Amino acid sequence: MTQITKDTIIGDILDADRECGKFFLEIGMHCLGCPSARGETVEQACEVHGVNCEDLVEKINDYLATK
Prior knowledge:
Elements: H1 10-16, H2 21-26, H3 35-38, H4 42-49, H5 53-65
């Protein structure tokens, strides 16, 4: 996975790199194993957890760029 967007499915991100789970845990999303959580987009998760989506996308993409 090279770049994620707000529309990227969380399960796809975690399948590509399990270490990205830490970014979701940081925003309070502790249900990463739940099928419905894995099917959400990054934007949907951010809305539920009151997090700026662009900031999270940037943080994950910065991490992925180091791989």
